[in-house]
Every structure is written in C-alpha cells, then in structure tokens.
Design goal:
homodimer, MgtE N-terminal fold, Tetracycline Repressor, domain 2, 3 domains, three-stranded mixed beta sheet
Chain lengths: 491, 491
C-alpha cells in the first residue's frame, strides 16, 4: 500500500529507525495469544458488508483487524498486531489514535515499547506523551533517541490543538543560493531521511526565517542553473504556531493546500502541517460540536469505548442543568393556576405550543452554530442574521398558527371537544404559536452570538438548551395571550 | 503561495492552458467596476479580527476579497477578481465552490468564460456542469478543448458524491518494465503537464488494470537499474468508482493516505482522489448531518447565501411534520381530562417531565448518529448499544427523579404549594422521570438503527423528532403513574 505518508518508508530506511525491523519481530512473534485470527475475523465479519468467506488458514488482514478493533481490549489488540505480517502491523500501528498508542505501549515491555515508538513521527510521539498518564510520561520520553527527544520536547510546549501541536518538525529545507540542480540532488539525498515530505521544500535564511517555498515539481521544471531564490514562491500561505486547529483547518479548506508551513511570530520556520492530519481535525471538531449541540459535554473517546461512568457524567451534568432550568416552567405555571383552573382545556395545548417554540429554536441555533464553525457567519454578521430570522420566524409562526387554528376547528366540528369558546381557544393557540415560534427563532439564532461574545463555545447553544429557554417563555406567552383574549369569556 | 495543488502550475505551463495568461488580462482589466477595492476592504474588515489599517492605494488582497466574498453579489465578485493581481485572481478562482464557478462563468462573455474555465481541472469542470442549469450545460461543454471534454463527459457519468465523481483523471502512469531511471525522467517530462500530482505514479498493465503504485520518493531511493515492477507497492489501497464519498472519506481518515486510486469493478484504473478534496467532503457531510439533526432539511448553500424561500421551506416542512406529530399530545391529554380536572396541580409538571425525556432522547440519538457516521458503531452493534443505554438511562432517570422529588418537597416546605398530598405528587413526578428518561434514552438510541435498517439517513433521527416522539409517550407515562399512585387519594 502507499505509505501512510512518505515518512513510513523513512522510518524503515532512516538511521535511528534502522534498528526497528531487526528488533520488533523477536518481540512480536511467539508468546501465548489470548485471541486468534479466527475469532478476530468473526468479530470483524459482523460489520463488513463485503465480507468474503476466508479460509481459516489465511493470515489475518489489516482490514479485518481494523474492523474488529473497537471491540477488542488492549491485550487482544496487541495479539491482533502479532497475527499480522510485520509490515502491515507497523503500518496499522502508525495510523492508530494517540489513545490507542498509549494503551498498547504501556501494555508492552520497555524493549518492545522502544522499537514500536520509533515508528512514530515526533508529532505523533508528542501526542502520545500528552495522552499518557503523568507518571508514565518520563518513562516514555526516556525511550527516545536524543534528537527525537529534543524535537518532542519542543512540540510539547504547544497546546495539543494549536498549529504547533499538529506540526511535524522534519521538513525539507533549502538555501536561497542553491541552483535547481543542487536542490534536486540535495533533496534526493534527503529522500532516505524520515522527512514528512520532500515534495515541498522550504527556503530559509540563516536565522531560519521562512523566505519561500518550492515544490519538487518546480525544481524539475526550472532551468537547472537558476537559483532557488529566482523561482521560489515568496508569498507563502503560512500558519502561526499558536493558530488554533479549527482556524487552521479552515485555512486548508479555503486554500486547497497539501502542506502549510508553521512559523512563530518572528517568521521563524517551526514545522509543517499536512492536509491528511487535518481530515482528523475536521472530524474531531465536528464531533465535538455535534455532541455539544445534542446537549451534552463532548466525549473524549468513541461511543463504544467510553466508560459508562464518563458517559453518565457527560450527559447527567447537562440533563440536570437543563432540568433545573426547566423547573421554571413549573414556577411559571404556578402563576397561572387560576387561569388553568378556570379553563383546564388550555393545558391540553401546552406541549404543542412549547415544543413548536423549542423546535424552531433548535433549527435556528443549529444553522447559526454550524455557519459560525464554517466561517460563513462572523460575529459582526449578527444584524444580518436577526433580519433574516425575524422574517423566517414570522413566516414559520404564521404557518404553524394557521395549522393550529384549523386543527381546533376541525376537532370541534368532529367531536365538539372544546365547547362554545372553541374559536377563541383556536385564536389563542394560533397567536401563541406565532409569538412562540418568533421568539424561539430569535433566541435560537442570537444565543450563539451571545455565547461567542462571552468567549464561550457557540455550540453550547444546544437544541435542548434553547428548548428549555423557550419552554418557559412559551408558557408565559401562551397564558398571556389567553388572558387577553379569554378574559370576560372563559377567564 | 504554494499552488492549490500541483495542477495550478500545470494549468499555466500545460499546452491547452498555455493560452490563458494571454487571453485573460485583456478580458479582466478595464470596464466600469460596480464596486471598488475600498468598499470590499470595508466589508472584509468587518470580520477580520487581525484587520490591519491598509492604505487605500494598495491593491486588494486575496484574503480581503475572500473575507468579503459571502456578502458580495455575482457582479461585485467579478469586479473583485478584476481588482486582484492576475495570478491571485486565478488562484482564488480555482479554489471557489462549483456554485460560485457557475454564477461567475454564466455572468461572463463566452470568450472570458473559456479562458477561466481552462484554469479548472476536469473534475472541477464536471462539478460546474452538474451545478449549472440544464440549458447552460451544452454551452459550457462547448467551450472545452476536445481532450478535456472527453474527460469531463466520462466524469459526468458518475454521481457527484461517488468516488468517481470526486476523482481526477489526470494522474501519472508507468509501465512495470521501466527502470527507476526511465521512470524518473519520464515523470520529469510529465511535470509540465496538468497532472494532479507526479509524486505518486500508478503502474498499469496494457489493459489499464492497476498493478501497483510507486512514490517519486521510492524512485529516487531505488537502484537506478531496477525495474518499477521490482519495487512497486502491489498491495494498493484502492477505492471502487461507485464507493460513496462518506465511505471514501472514512478510508482516507483510517489510512492517512495522501492519494487513493479509483478503479472500476474490473480493476481498471479510472483516476485518483487526493486528500485535500476529502477535507471539503468531510465538512459537507458533517454539515448535512448537523442540519438534519437540528430538525430540518440540509441546506444546499451557506446560511447567508440561501434565499429566504429555501430557508423557510427546508425548516417549515419539518416544523409542520413535527407539529402534526406533537398534536398527539393534545389528543393524549384529552384522555386524561378527568385526572387533570381533579388534580390540576399535575399539569404544572408536564413541561418538566416531557422535556427531560426529550433531552435524554436527543443526547442518545446524537451520540449514536455521530458514532455511525464515523463508523464507530455499525448496524450489528445495536445490541451493545441497547445494553449501554438501558444502564445509562436508568442512572440518569434515577438522578433526575430524585432531584424532582426533592424540588417538590422543598417548595412544599417553603410555600406549601402542593397541598397535603405533596409527597405522593413528588413520588409521581420522580417515578415518571425515571420512566420517561429511560424511554427517551432507548428511543433516541434505537431510532437511528431503525432508520438505517429502513434505508433512511440515521441523522434524520433529529433531536426535535425524538423529542416529539417522547413527549407523547411521556404524557402517557406521567398520567399512568399518577393514576396508579393517586387513585383513592387525589384521583
């Protein structure tokens, strides 16, 4: 298969990693297995639509192990790796999440740990160390060769979700004075090194300041004698090392770049981020937002792998907060006891009214939150959004209001459910729906702006949160409208 | 800047595109502008946090135009491009969405259309044609040179969101018999062509069947005389041309590959997909899911760019459906008129009860839907999920139930709100909460599986949809519990 990125071969050919192929096999083969290929294949087959009947003798494939992975415990995963061909095992290992890396590494003997850690890039190792329990960190760092340890330490200075935390420090450098020919043969020699890529080379001045970039392709097409400085691209899209990963992924999406260089505030080159790392970031960010929008704290781990405890905590906290908020509805309705007592029929429509408000609210907040995440809507656009949402809310409220009125008239005609004042009741419900939907839409669309202004994550304006907010107001609107229209008749 | 992908230079150097630089300027410069750099900069600055005070004389930058883009109409965008330096304008144009491409192209004269369309890759052109109104398609196709038209027609045979619809047909090919040296000099010559990339070359047999892949890096490090066949990677991760883009993006995320080749069912090489196209796909898919989960149809266009009409339609339809469903609550409560009449105080807690059910339901469905989208949970895992959710629901229900009971006892002690039977009422609320939350959790987590089984998109198990479902059941649970516990005392 194509190496995960160019590095994968680098890891085999490069000097420090040279030892790996020798060391690992002795570690990997042999020992009592707690799970066999057949069992793994069975688990895997469950999910694989295109599962093919495989002869039990055949060795396990990467795909099968990957398929079964989520439901295997750490020892079974370790055995699974042993069941693969060495190279496949290494390829699979390098593509695992930092959390999986930590679990496996800590379950292995130091010797085996070292040899497998050497397969990882400095940036991956940094993630592993950040993911590892504090007590294990020193131990893991101790396994690294001098050069790698230095690089990892540099990376650990950055927050995990900064550009600096995502970048790879092993990139190809060129001097502006080199000729195209010199640059090519220089990069050819570099090709064996564990560089992330040699296809984009960065031109640095003596102070490591970024002057420009050349693609290998530029070099191949440039006249051999011209110096790099003459044809390098000087207006380079770059990321600051403290740029957060969400902004960085927006940059990649906008620019369609394969690689973006990372510089500090002095323009000193720090490393490169490649687009394949960004795919994971984009999915991560979307998952976080989606879970928050579902009215819970974002989970650190995949659903099936999160412990019941974390699950209950991350959901329970929010449910409780929401319920406490929702208690205001009980208080609100307390105020309207007399109205309710006199016109019990009104209570019948309470769920209808408040849920309509909640639904229109969650639609609006969902739209705005996502648009913000994608950079389509910026803080200053709030007024544009208000204008849109007032009109939308009015239209939607009108539609629902009419439907509500019709519903009541029909039921009255069919079963006379609502007594002589059914028309008044219908109007109360209709007007309340207009008001509630309008309020829901506005609240839902403005809350993300408010949260952002307060420095909170707009995604916390979750559907449930908005719904709760709107429920209380919805009741007040409903009973106020009722009071206005029905006093004298029913009230 | 680094070219969007290698193609961008290709587009300038390659033969058919050669004409562009000559043609465009005459088209771009001159003419009366409907908007000037200053205005665009003003609009842009609104949003740019790091906005710098720029001297009005300075030419507009790509970033400023990009910033202002969403709020400019098509003519202003066209003017914006004229205000940029030629090369910047072309770079920006190539990174635009298919929708933007169509709007701009159709607003231009045929001559200008041709020269700008030549900047686009066949796969981008195919998207443009698919996005264009039927009547304009033939016209656009007519602007293409013979070779490109053939390629585009081939791509148009695929659905937009299949691997075939995403792939680029201009990839580097090698024959297995070539030596490393021959391959390198062959690719060097190819470097000027408008290939998507020369860094990964695909080895094909005479029938165009995919035999293997070599990275340029492999070639540089291989002994010059060895044939490609000897060191090519034969076990190539490949995508079927009919694989849907969601599966394809999962493949990229799992494998961390920069490029994946696309083959038909006979193993014949059709094209390549590069990871930078996948970033957009991942965001698109996430946005669609998020909007569906927010209880609405997914929007085709960015929030600020969608017309009020589409907005109202895509939201109104769902709101109406949900409301019609919610009407069942009114019906349900109709059945309990007597209970309500006898114990009006019960109505006070209705919003509290049903919203708690709705919230726990949307949490559960959100979790499961996202886990499915990420491939963490597969159809066959439903039983695992049930087991988890029953326990979670029980725990969460217990917590909320106790809080509810305490709330009532406290209010009673403080204000005697609930009369002599307050303890019974508290128990009714408490037990109802347990039941409602349990039901909400289960319904929310199983609905996505059901929808998937029925061939529908699990994401349609939106929070509002689950909430509506749970509201009705919640009421029934609540009043049934009340009936059991209160009959003889209050009822």
């Amino acid at each position: 298969m194509v190496p995960p990125d160019d590095h994968a071969e680098g890891a085999h050919d490069g000097e420090p990693e040279g030892a790996t192929p020798v060391e690992v096999p002795t570690e990997v083969t042999g020992g009592v297995l707690r799970i066999d290929a057949h069992t793994i294949r069975e688990i895997a087959d469950l999910g694989v639509a295109q599962a093919v009947a495989v002869n039990a003798a055949e060795p396990l494939t990467v795909e099968e192990l990957r398929e079964a992975w989520p439901v295997l415990d750490v020892d079974e995963r370790s055995d699974g790796l042993k069941l693969l061909e060495q190279e496949d095992a290494e390829d699979l290992f390098t593509t695992l999440s930092a959390r999986d890396h930590v679990q496996l590494l800590l379950s292995w003997r130091p010797g085996k740990r070292r040899s497998w850690m050497r397969l990882l890039e400095p940036d991956d190792i940094a993630d592993v160390v950040q993911e590892a329990p504090d007590e294990a960190r020193g131990e893991l760092m101790a396994l690294l060769d001098e050069r790698t340890r230095k690089e990892v330490q540099a990376l650990l200075a950055y927050a995990e979700d900064d550009a600096g935390g995502l970048m790879n420090t092993r990139y190809a450098r060129l001097r502006p004075g080199m000729t195209a020919d010199e640059a090519i043969s220089y990069l050819r020699r570099q090709a064996r090194e564990a560089l992330e890529t040699i296809y984009y080379a960065y031109v640095l001045d003596p102070d490591q300041k970024l002057l420009g970039v050349v693609s290998f392709r530029d070099l191949l097409t440039a006249p051999p004698r011209t110096t790099v400085a003459e044809f390098m691209e000087t207006d380079v899209i770059r990321a600051n090392d403290e740029m957060d990963q969400e902004t960085l992924s927006r940059l990649f999406a906008e620019q369609d770049l394969p690689v973006i260089p990372v510089v500090d505030q002095h323009g000193v080159m720090k490393g490169i981020v490649t687009v394949d790392d960004i795919v994971d970031v984009v999915e991560e960010e979307a998952t976080e937002d989606i879970q928050k929008m579902g009215g819970m704290q974002a989970l650190e781990q995949p659903y099936l792998e999160s412990s019941l405890g974390t699950m209950i905590k991350s959901r329970g906290v929010w449910l409780t907060v929401l319920m406490v908020g929702e208690m205001l509805t009980a208080t609100a309705m307390g105020f309207f006891q007399d109205e309710i007592g006199k016109a019990v029929v009104l209570t019948v429509f309470i769920p209808l009214i408040i849920s309509s408000g909640g639904n229109s609210g969650s639609q609006a907040s969902t739209l705005v939150i996502r648009a913000m995440a994608l950079g389509e809507v910026r803080g200053r656009d709030w007024w544009r959004v208000v204008r849109r949402e007032i009109l939308t809310g009015l239209a939607l409220g009108g539609i629902l209001g009419v439907i509500g009125l019709i519903r009541i008239v029909l039921w009255q005609a069919a079963a006379g459910s609502y007594g002589d004042h059914y028309l008044l009741i219908g109007l109360v419900v209709g007007f309340s729906l207009i008001g509630v939907v309008m309020f829901g839409t506005l609240a839902g669309s403005m809350l993300p702006f408010l949260l952002r202004k307060l420095g909170a994550d707009p995604a916390s304006a979750s559907a449930p949160f908005v719904a709760t907010l709107v429920d209380v107001t919805g009741l007040v609107i409903y009973f106020t409208v009722a009071h206005l229209l029905l006093s004298g008749s029913m009230l």
